[in-house]
Amino acid sequence: MRRFSIVATASCSGKTTLGRELARRLEVPFVELDALHHGPNWTEATAEELRARVEPVVAENGWVIDGGYWGKIGDLVLRNADVVVWLDLPVRVWLPRLIRRTGRRVARREELWNGNRESVRNVFFSRNSLIWYALRNHPRHRRVYPKRLARYNVVRLRTPKEVERWLATFG
After folding, report:
1. Across-strand partners of 84?
2. From CA 130, how far away is CA 135, in angstroms rounded?
3. Residue 120 has what pLDDT?
4. Cα dihedral sign for 114, 2, 149, 78?
5. Number of structural domains found in the chain
6. What is the residue-wise DSSP string for the chain?
7. What is the model's pLDDT at position 122?
8. Which CATH number does the domain housing residue 95 bear?
9. Domain range enclosing 83
C-alpha cells in the first residue's frame, strides 16, 4: 500500500501533519489539495482545473493526498487510494488546535498557499471563515462520511492516540 487519501471531519484534525509524516516514512510525494485549489488572492480553481492538477498525481504509484474537494473532483482521489484515512477527532481536540493555529497564522502573517494569508477579517467576519465552516459542518460530516466512505478501504481514527498508534505501524 503506497497510495493514501487523508480526509477529516473538521479542520485541524491533523491531516497535513499526518500526511507529511506518512509520506516521509513511505518515501512518496505528499500533496495538499488546498495548495492546488487556492490560487493567488484566494482565487479557486475550477473543477476542470483542479481535476487536471490532481489526475497526474493519482496516476503515480505512490502518494499521500490531504483533502477531499468532492464537490469539484468527486471521488477521484478516493477511488485511486489504497487506503482512505478518516481523522474523526472530537471537537474538544480540533477546535482548540484550530483557534491556536489560526491565531498564530494571523499574528505572524504566515503564508498558506500561493501568497494567501489569513486575516482577522477573513477569520472572523467572512462567511468563508474556516472556524465557522468547521463548527457548522462538523456534525454533517460525521453523519455523511460513513455512507460516503463505505465503499473504500477506510481506517477511521478517533483520538490522537489512535493516530499515533496507526502511524507507528509504518516504522
Report:
1. 5, 154
2. 9
3. 83
4. positive
5. 1
6. --EEEEEESSTTSSHHHHHHHHHHHHT--EEEHHHHHB-GGGPBPPHHHHHHHHHHHHTSS-EEEE---HHHHTTHHHHH-SEEEEE---HHHHHHHHHHHHHHHHHHT-B-STT-B--HHHHHSSTT-HHHHHHHHHHHHHHHHHHHHTTS-EEEE-SHHHHHHHHHTT-
7. 78
8. 3.40.50.300
9. 3-168
Residues in the chain: 171
What the block records as the C-alpha cell of 163 is 493516530
Q: How far apart are CA 73 and CA 167, in angstroms?
A: 27
Q: What are phi and psi of 46, to 5 degrees?
A: -70, 170
pLDDT (0 to 100) of residue 71? 95
Residue pair 41/113 in contact (Cβ under 8 Å)? The answer is no
10-residue averages of pLDDT along the chain (171 residues)? 93 94 98 96 95 98 96 97 97 94 91 88 77 89 96 98 97 81
Q: For residues 58 and 74, give the distance between their C-alpha atoms in angstroms, rounded to a whole number.
A: 13
Angle, CA 16 vertex, CA 151 and CA 94 arms, to 5°: 85
